[in-house]
Amino acid sequence: KLLDLTIENEIPTIAAVSEDLTLKDPALLTLGIGTHLDPNIAAIRAITEVAQSRATQIHGTREDTTRANLLRQTGYERMKRLNRHWFRSSQKTINLEDMPDRSSDSFKKDIDISMKLLEKSGIKDAYYVNLTRDINIPVVRVIIPQMEVYSVDTSRIGNRLKQKDPIAGSLI
């Protein structure tokens, strides 16, 4: 399922949550998150992360597969309960097409748009580097201090997020 995690800065952030209804393997309860000014790209990034996580667990190529073994000992239903905030039902649904696309045709414009939107969250700093290579695949790496990675480590919740319901997203 897809969840809308977009906050007051209005930059589309989508989570993709995957269950394993056939094998009930807790290592395959995976999560991916994507953020982009174009909500379709944000969703694609989230889904890609989920697919990569699942493939990594299935093929056992990840270094922390010992973590997967611990998850399996914990059990599928218990892991779902522990992570119920990702699996709960939502009363509110939206269509991906209804989310505004604020992207442009250039990194520079997208960064300028993003910085203006981030100011709504009180964020003034972002660091980025253009990693586009000779093969012409456009890539920018962005790091934004104050943006918590709550989905991975719930102890990283910051003041900005403490004031919100951190998993208030809607099913898409």
Task: Write a concise synopsis of the structure shown.
With 172 residues, this protein is of the alpha+beta class. It has six helices and six strands; from the N terminus they run βββαααααββαβ.
How does this structure look, described?
By secondary structure, this protein is α+β, with helices and mostly antiparallel strands. The chain has one domain. It has helices at 39-59, 65-74, 76-82, 84-87, 107-118, 159-162; strands at 2-4, 13-18, 30-35, 127-130, 140-143, 170-171. Strand 1 (2-4) and strand 2 (13-18) form a beta hairpin.
- Helix coverage percent of residues? 25-40%
Are there runs of 5+ residues with pLDDT below 50, and where? none
The percentage of residues in β strands lies in 5-15%
Give the overall silhouette. Answer: globular
- H/E element sequence: EEEHHHHHEEHE
Termini separation (Å)? 7 Å
The largest β sheet comes out as: 4 strands, antiparallel
- Counted up, domains total 1
Q: Tell me the number of helical segments per DSSP (H or I, 4 or more residues long).
A: 6
**What spatial order of strands do you see in the largest sheet?**
3-2-1-6
Average per-residue pLDDT, rounded, comes to 84
What is the C-alpha radius of gyration, as a whole number of Å?
17 Å
The total beta strand count reads 6
Secondary-structure content class: alpha+beta
